[in-house]
Amino acid sequence: MHIVRRPSIAALAGSAILLCACGGGRHEPAESYVLVTSNTKIPYWQVAAEGLQTAARELGVKSEVAGPETYDPKAEKEELLKVVRRQIPPAGILVSAADPELLREGIDAAAAAGIPVITIDSDSPKSKRLTFIGTNNYQAGQMSGDLLVKALNGKGSVVLYSIPGQENLDERMEGFKRVLARSPGISIAQVVNIAGDPAKAFDATKALLAKGKNLPDAFLCFEALSCSEVADVLDRGNVRDKTIIAMDTQEGTLNWMRKGMIHATIAQKPYTMAYFGTRLLDDLHHVKVSGSADGPRAPMPVFMDTGATLVDKSNMASFAAPAPAAR
C-alpha cells in the first residue's frame, strides 16, 4: 500500500509571502486571479470563492471563478485552457484538479506561458504547479476510519461513497484503508462512484434498502455531496440505527446532523485554501522565484496543510453558516 507522507505546514507564516502583499501601488489595473474548478455552484466552492474574493479585494485586484457548474473534468480542462489563452492572461491561477492527469496539460500550458499556478483541494502532483494548498487527505481518511471503528466497536460493514481517480479522494481512501487494516472486523461492502452527481448516491442507497435485508452497518462519504442524500434515503425508509460519517460542513450535512441522522463529519477549509492561495499567487507574480518545489533549495514547500476538524454535536454550531446581516 502506498502511503502519502506530506509535511504539515501549520504556521504558513514562515514565508515572506503574505503579508508583504498589501494592496496598493504594485498592482496593475487589469491584474486578476482566477480559480478554476468543477462543480462551481456547490456550497464548498462558493465558500472558496469568498476566500478568493476577499483576498482580491484586500490586494486591490480582480478575481474570477471559472469552470463547469456540474462535475465535468473535461469541461474543467477546456475552461482552464481558455483562461490560459486569454488575450490578457491572469496574473495567477488556482486549480482544483478533478482529474490530476487530465488537468495536467492545462496547468503545464499555464506554466509555459509564465502564469504561476497553485493547486488547491485536489492536486495534480506530476504537473508544473508550484505548490499544493489543501487538506492532508491521507490524514483526513484516517480520521474518518478512526471515527468508524469507534462507532461500530470494531465490527460491521460499511458502504463508501467517492469519485475514484480524483487525487484527494483517493488519498482519503488510502488513509481509511490503513485504519481498517488494523480493524479486521470491519469490511467494505461496496464502493459507490458518485461521479460528482449526488443523485447517484441517492439511487445507490435506495437500491440497498430495496433489498430489504443485510443492510450495511455504516455509510461513509469521502466527498461533500453524498451523505445528505444517504441520510435522506435512510430517513424516508425509517432506518435510524446506522452510522453515517460525512465530509465537509455544507448546510444540508449540518441539518441531518441536527436531526441525528449523520453521526459526524470532517470539516475542511476551502476559504483558507483560496484566500491563502490568492495571496501567495500575488507574491509569486510580483516577486519571481526560481527553483523547483522538490529541489534541495526549494523556495516554498511542496505542500501546505490547511487542516481538518472533526465536527460532531459538541461543536457543530460553530460551523453553521452565519446569519445574513440585517438590512
Describe this structure in words.
- The protein is an alpha/beta fold.
- The chain has two domains: 12-135 and 269-306, Response regulator (Rossmann fold, 3-Layer(aba) Sandwich); 137-267, 3-Layer(aba) Sandwich (Rossmann fold), CATH 3.40.50.2300.
- It contains ten helices and twelve strands.
- The protein has a six-stranded parallel beta sheet, with helices on both faces. Strands 7-6-8-9-10-12 form a six-stranded mixed beta sheet, sandwiched between helices.
- β8 (218-221), α8 and β9 (243-247) form a beta-alpha-beta unit.
- α2 (43-59) runs parallel beside α10, α3 (73-84) runs parallel beside α4 (104-112) and α5 (137-151) crosses α6.
- The longest helix is centred in the N-terminal third of the chain and has 17 residues, at 43-59.
- It is elongated, with a radius of gyration of 20 Å.
- The chain starts with 16 loop residues before the first helix and ends in a 16-residue tail after the last strand.
